[in-house]
Amino acid sequence: AQSVTQPDIHITVSEGASLELRCNYSYGATPYLFWYVQSPGQGLQLLLKYFSGDTLVQGIKGFEAEFKRSQSSFNLRKPSVHWSDAAEYFCALRGGGNKLTFGTGTQLKVEL
Amino acid sequence: DAGVIQSPRHEVTEMGQEVTLRCKPISGHNSLFWYRQTMMRGLELLIYFNNNVPIDDSGMPEDRFSAKMPNASFSTLKIQPSEPRDSAVYFCASSLFRNSADTQYFGPGTRLTVL
Fold it and tell me: Among A47, B16, B66, B81, which is least packed, fewest CB within 10 Å?
């Protein structure tokens, strides 16, 4: 079975501060990992994905994520948060086949 | 590209009524997915199709739910009869499936309220 855990339901950061959103996964082999962002009333937009190679992945909007096999983690980072980054962030895993398993999401609030 | 198109964007109906949600995937994509999002259960995969064929419908809650994909450019998710607990946001996503690294592109969702 595969699963994704996002331990933080809500996170609040000040604009300009750095951000790290945590994601842990459970899967028997090397998974394909994704981060999506959902703005209020919108669908999900892909930020970045890891499937092989360099464990540090760059995405859109200045986000990056690092795959750490030893920790079964794929944490999302941004060095300086903008107010427009306030949204809900989902980590997702795909093992074999075509199904994505999502975490429960982390709601990010940005204080001005 | 127009992206994944879903209609309607909002639907309010009464318990017992039939509800049909519609999805047009991105042109050229060969996989289509229906998800449901609720506060209690998060994002759940209901069913997905490859090349218009249903591959996995294990997430469909019960017989009241059915999904079809009559051609590569159109899919429907039907609930009959609808119940208040079906209230949720329903997302359609599509992808060009070549390997497990492909990206699923999501539509804007249909917010369903069953009174």
Answer: B16
